[in-house]
Amino acid sequence: MTTIVAGKQYGLFINGKWEKTIETMDVLNKYNQESIASISVAEKDHIDKAVKGAKDALNDSFSPYERYEVLMKAANLLLERGEEFAQVLALEVGKPIRESRGEIERAAQTLVISAEEAKRIHGEGVPVESAPGSENRMAFTVRVPVGVIAAITPFNVPVNLVCHKIGPALAAGNSVILKPAEVTPICALMLTDLMEEAGLPKGRLQVVTGEGAQIGEWLLENKDVNMFTFTGSPRVGEYLRSKAGLRKVALELGNNSATIVHNDANLEQAASLIAQKSFNNAGQVCISVQRVYVQEEIAEQFIELLKKNTEKLVVGDPLDESTDIGPMIRIGEAERVESWVNEAVEQGATIALGGKRNEALFEPTILVNVNDDMKVCRQEVFGPVVSVATYKETNEVIAKVNDSDYGLQAGLFTNNLQFAMRAAREIEVGGLIVNDASAYRVDHMPYGGVKNSGNGKEGPKYAIEEMTEERIIVINL
Ligand SMILES: NC(=O)C1=CN([C@@H]2O[C@H](COP(=O)(O)OP(=O)(O)OC[C@H]3O[C@@H](n4cnc5c(N)ncnc54)[C@H](O)[C@@H]3O)[C@@H](O)[C@H]2O)C=CC1
Ligand SMILES: O=C(O)[C@H](O)CS(=O)(=O)O
């Protein structure tokens, strides 16, 4: 185990200082359930001190170019320490080491993109003089930071999704109070050290750890928090929105991602990509492929190819270079997934591959003969299970994909341009990925969903728009 975390107690990061608390929470190695380190548990006064410090920091200048320099330095430091972060990711998330390295590379990219966007924040000229009586006036808009942003992040992608919050927020001139997931907080705490080393001015980033619901309440009560940006479950997202009042709330929530395989698709390509993107991070990715709709006449051939690609995947210790699928975040979550699979079988589904659990490890599982009302289709599995159903024609499959409370991203394998463009218009999602699976994402693209998948867009350029206010300046000459 990497020595940097072994047995360490991490403090809260408030106004540039680490503060340890008497009460602590253990962070577990998700493969063997042993404690790897502990985190401090914030009390209300810590939260209020952090919010005040974040607000006060807004008075200290931090120019766009300085933000660019700090974020670029942070990206370089992250790449230099990539292996350390990857090892900790593998420990605290259970994410296979090869996949963890990929997350670090993406997170550094997210910081670079944020740095570049820091230099491109602008308003526009507004031709007020075209209004009768305004011939002698001129106007333009400017974008100003919203102020203090509370950023709350999920357990599954704890480096890149933290960077998707703090990168754009800092690039736009805000201060951030980060509350990482209590089950996978260590990388965020390591990132905090790194941001300070990169020259981030004191107070611009505050990091608090502890009981999510309790800290959430204290942040909601504090009216000096100007915005909430949340990535996590619809349950919590909806709660935050209901309590935030008139403050901005950006929500990146759940999904039960569908991917369509049409009869003219490249089946080898579809089966390979869907196998990979159904089981990354043990399926704990909100755009992970969960529902596959394959056209009837090619279904048998496709399912065999999907099985062939899936049975190659190695389940095991995330620190082992050969591992493709590590443990789920909790044994309880693996037990939930197991119960959903067993319930689907009782309702008529067939396990084409997998279905077995060993503690927190769950085999990559393919279900067939499913129907859309089974939990494994209707709800968000957030585990290594993909359900394959068939369809006859395009109207039917578009309706099936849209028959969901969620709408984050969907995939469509076809070479039929008319069908692809019709799907682009009619499938109710934030992103349609043609000739790849629903789980495609690069960090500068607009990313966010509709319906219960949330609102707003991430991707630094788009997040910055949400993390700034547009102000018009009119001059009467
Ligand atoms: N749309 C997206 O980009 C993503 C969505 N997700 C979603 O997140 C979920 C899995 O992540 P989890 O961490 O289990 O989600 P979660 O909603 O349980 O927790 C997310 C964060 O919210 C905090 N939290 C919990 N209760 C809270 C409350 N009452 N007030 C304020 N904060 C609270 C937690 O401590 C954690 O930091 C899945 O539903 C998944 O779909 C995960 C990753 C990306
Ligand atoms: O949806 C998630 O879990 C992540 O946003 C997907 S990604 O950013 O890791 O591609």
UniProtKB/TrEMBL annotation:
Oxidoreductase recorded as keyword: yes
InterPro entries per UniProt: Ald_DH/histidinol_DH, Ald_DH_C, Ald_DH_N, Aldehyde_DH_dom, ALDH-related_metabolic_enz
Reaction(s) the record says it catalyses: (2S)-3-sulfolactaldehyde + NAD(+) + H2O = (2S)-3-sulfolactate + NADH + 2 H(+)
EC supergroup of this enzyme: oxidoreductase
All residue ranges annotated as the Aldehyde dehydrogenase domain in the record: 21-471
GO MF annotations, alphabetized: lactaldehyde dehydrogenase (NAD+) activity
EC number: 1.2.1.97
Keyword Electron transport: no
Coiled-coil intervals, chain numbering: none
Source taxon at top rank: Bacteria
Keywords, alphabetical: Oxidoreductase
PANTHER family per the UniProt record, alphabetical: ALDEHYDE DEHYDROGENASE
Similarity section: Belongs to the aldehyde dehydrogenase family.
Function: Part of the sulfo-TAL (or sulfo-SFT) pathway, a D-sulfoquinovose degradation pathway that produces sulfolactate (SL). Catalyzes the oxidation of 3-sulfolactaldehyde (SLA) to sulfolactate (SL).
The protein's name in its UniProt record: 3-sulfolactaldehyde dehydrogenase
Organism: Halalkalibacter alkaliphilus
